[in-house]
Amino acid sequence: MTTLTKAEPAPESRTAGSAPHRKRPREGSRLLGFLAWVIGILFVLPVLWMLLTSLHSESDAATNPPKLAAPLTLQGYREFFGASSGASPWPSLLNSLTASVISTLLVLALAIPAAYALSIRPVRKWTDVLFFFLSTKMLPVVAGLLPIYLFAQKVHLLDNIWLLIVLYTSMNLPIAVWMMRSFLAEVPVEMLEAASVDGAGLTRTLTQVVGPVVMPGIAATSLICFIFSWNELLFARVLTATVAQTAPVFLTGFVTSQGLFLAKVCAAALVVSLPVMIAGFAAQDKLVQGLSLGAVK
Amino acid sequence: MLRRVRRVLAATTTSVLVLSMTGCAGWGGGVGGGGANTINVLMVNNPQMVDLQRLASEHFTKDTGISVNFTVLPENDLRDKASQEFSSQAGQYDVATLSNFEIPIYGQSGWVAPLDAFVAADPAFNQKDILPSMTKSLTGANGKLFGEPFYGESSFLMYRKDVFASKGLTMPTKPTWPEVADLAAKVDKARPGMAGICLRGQPGWGQVMAPLTTVVNTFGGTWFTKDWRAEVNGPGFREATNFYVNLVRTHGEIGAPQAGFTECLNNLEQGNVAMWYDATSAAGALESADSPVRGKIGYVAAPVMHTPSSGWLYTWSWGIQQASTKKQNAWKFISWASSAAYEKLAGSELGWSRVPAGKRSSTYTNPQYLKAAGAFAAPTLAALESADPRNPGLQPRPAIGIQFVDIPEFPDLGTRVSQDISSATAGRLSVTAALNRGQQLASDVADRYRSRRAVATAPGPAVAKERAP
After folding, report:
1. A69 lies in a domain?
2. What is the DSSP string of B6-45?
3. Does the CB of A87 have a partner CB in chain B at under 8 Å?
4. Are residues B125 and B258 in the same domain?
5. Helices A23-54 and A262-282, interaxial angle, to 10°?
6. B95 lies in the same domain as B138
7. pTM of the model
8. Share of chain B above pLDDT 70, in %
9. Nearest partner of B149 among B162, B164, B132, judged by Cα
10. What does the alpha-carbon distance between residue B89 and residue B117 come to, in Å, rounded to a whole number?
11. Nearest residue on chain A to B88, judged by CA atoms?
12. Is A141 part of the contact surface with chain B (CB cutoff 8 Å)?
């Protein structure tokens, strides 16, 4: 087991090269590093702008040109937590958390065995199976909206979080299968053979040999499924009402055509984004590892 | 790191499972969810509704024992959701805020319940106190009442009294559009960065098309004639649109093609414009305690051309879904929310400038309301009383509505025409080209109505009888 995992350090072999060739990559990498920082800052700027706007009063947030040095206030956040309306955001946040976590767990439970059967022990015509999974994403989501709405109405599942859990699971499953297949395909065959020689059964091979190696992949897949479920708006808006309303639907409720709302919406958007950010930071290194090694390398 | 990931995953899973077991999350649901003493209300996110949301739990639920679950959505989302909910009669919501655009259409389709019996059994509600123009706009073609207004608005002209005084100008109490254009030229650049007038230019049937259609009405134009002929490139419509676009291009606000109600409100509050023609409901925000222009705004009637008045009529009102199983409780909620007592409650708890006004005559005789809204109460009431949704222009109309034509096709038609008019405001398209395209779109709609009417008036039963064996 330990001897097998030592086979990882690939980057070292990549850096091996003659001395005259080393300078260029360094200059190049400095430039690339600089570019990465610039792009990174460009990506973060809107979020910082949103943070600043959320801390302004509504009238300061709406000025054109914007007032950067306007006094800071937490009123936007107070409004999000129901200072004026008395409406609590917690039920919506809990609904989102329930739908996202349960659907992600279901996706993993289904995607990992499916991916195993498509990579490590490929079933017959596994490429067709993979294409079938992908083809389910070809139908525009909106095209399925009306049949799903009518079905949900008939079976009395409108405004029920279980409906969203089932939908999010089925929406994310093809992506998860593709991602996990790609991660599992990178598990060296020798490892599996060695485990087999050592007498490990399927469960033990999966949990003790394959599991640790693909953990970055599982982390990346989980996070992507979690983000997609957490941010989903179209189905949530159409299929929920007062009981199963999710956070994105609650968030859009702050937009009004009569009055100012920028600070409130920015505050709400930041609070609603927090769980995804926390999940992202918690799995940061695994995520980077997973995304750079796996399906989207 | 692996441990940390596992810990986070384990903690989240545990919390979700605990929540699910304690029933905190939305696992119930279904039609009419929440028990017999709970009603579900779908509501537009306007400030008056946010106030209502707070007062409902503090007062209505306390007094009646009926809990109210609200879903609050932005206007466009609300329209989508309401149309989906009511057309399928899903029964998830007992009550919804619907405008006087939807109510007659929904009433005719049988999607909202008639309220006449509830009104008759509830004399304390006092239907006679509701402004007649409001009742008329919420009554179906069959004479049944399908909605009760929560607040109403018309349109009028707002102007900076201090700027006019400094320029030695006087605003007539009933201005004409040419007078307004003349004044806009005179106050343009009266202060640095100040434009003459703010007029909506943002695409949308409820944005630029609302004020523009009132201008069209008073210039003698119409979308359709009584016998369903499109008139979008007719002389009245063309003259009005040319006037509107020229005025906004020469003396209008910066960024007019993107300016809607909110942008114009900001512009007037921040001193970027000297005049604004828009909804009477804007006055509440302009005269609120934190408004920088409080006390500086004058209010006069909507400018006219050939008609005696030209204000629009709009109301957010309550409708009960026909599929609701809790109609009695739903009416109790409506009767409370649209009552004169609620206005007093909102006035005393939140301030009289935040009262959902514009629907009851008694509001305009209440001394406390008049004290807070004295600057704009009289012109608002005059505008509301003079609005006639069945006869807004110079010629008879095929459907009810002042700033809209009350047919299901109008949101799409109005929005598509508005996109071209917004382009004309930006100078990318001529008004003639915009209206010619609009005429084609409107003709398609008119053709459908003409053919439907032809089918309806054709001697169908007689033919059937003849063919019957």
Report:
1. no
2. HHHHHHHHHHHHHHHHHT-SS---STT-S-TTEEEEEEE-
3. yes
4. no
5. 140
6. yes
7. 0.80
8. 90
9. B132
10. 21
11. A150
12. no
DSSP A210: I
Tell me the CA distances in angstroms from B292 to A261, B48, B193, B267, B325, one per residue in order.
18, 21, 16, 11, 48
Other Cβ atoms closer than 10 A to A131:
10
Show the tokens assigned to B290. 């934190």
Check if the beta carbon of residue B91 is closer than 8 Å to that of residue B323: yes
β-sheet bridge partners, residue B72 = B43
The verdict on B327 and B307 lying in the same domain is no
Residue of B5, B27, B74 with shortest CB distance to A161: B27
Chain A residues in contact with B1 (beta carbon < 8 A): 285-286
Contact A258 B73 (CB under 8 A): no
Distance, CA of B332 to CA of B122 (rounded, Å): 9
Q: Is the pLDDT of residue A3 over 80?
A: no
* Nearest of A294, A295, A293, A296 to residue A11 by alpha carbon: A293
**Spatial distance between the Cα atoms of A245 and A241, rounded to a whole number of angstroms:** 6
The whole-angstrom separation of Cα B108 and Cα B106 is 5
Enclosing domain of residue B416: 155-313+387-451
Q: Is A241 close to B40, i.e. CB distance below 8 A? A: yes
3-state SS, residue A207: helix
Question: Which residue in A149, A150, A282 is closest to B4 by CB distance?
Answer: A282
Which residue range is the domain that position A115 belongs to? 89-293
| Neighboring chain A residues of B5 at a CB cutoff of 8 Å | 215, 219, 282-283, 286
Q: pLDDT by residue (tens digit) across B265-295?
A: 989 999 999 999 999 989 988 988 888 999 9
Please indicate, yes or no, whether residues B196 and B253 belong to a single structural domain of this protein. Answer: yes
In terms of Cβ atoms closer than 10 Å to its own Cβ (0-12, 13-18, 19+), residue A110 is: middle
Tokens at residue B155, please?
Answer: 């349109």
Beta pairing partners, B70? B41
Looking at residue B377, the DSSP 8-state letter turns out to be H
3-state SS assignment for residue B153: strand
**Cα–Cα–Cα angle for B79, B83, B84, nearest 5°?**
120
Structure tokens at B99: 């405008």
* A213 burial level (CB within 10 Å; 0-12, 13-18, 19+): middle
B84 → closest Cβ in A101, A215, A238: A238
Residue B96 CB contacts under 8 Å (≥ 6 apart), including other chains? B41, B42, B43, B78, B82, B85, B86, B318, B319, B321
Can you say how many angstroms the Cα of residue B90 is from the centroid of all Cα atoms in its chain?
25
**Contact criterion met (CB < 8 Å) for B45 and A254:** yes
Flag whether A136 is in a domain: yes
The type of residue at B426 is: A
Mean pLDDT per 10-residue segment, chain B (469 residues)? 52 51 45 73 91 92 94 89 93 95 94 97 96 93 94 96 96 96 96 96 94 97 96 96 97 94 91 96 86 94 96 96 96 97 94 89 94 90 92 94 95 95 95 96 96 77 40
The total domain count for chain A is 1
Angle at B112 between CA B399 and CA B323, to 5 degrees: 150
CATH assignment of the domain containing A254: 1.10.3720.10
- Specify the residue for token string 């005559």: B361
**How many residues belong to chain A?**
297
pLDDT at A271 over 90: yes
Q: Domain check: are B137 and B189 in the same one?
A: no
A41, pLDDT greater than 90: yes
A80 pLDDT exceeds 50? yes
Q: Which residues of A touch B16 (CB under 8 A)?
A: 97-98, 101-102
Those residues with Cβ within 8 angstroms of residue A85's Cβ, 6 or more apart along the chain or in another chain: A79, B50, B53, B54, B72
Residue closest to B432 by CA, chosen among B201, B246, B220: B246
CB A86 within 8 A of CB B57: yes
Q: Between A and B, how many CB-CB pairs are < 8 A?
A: 163
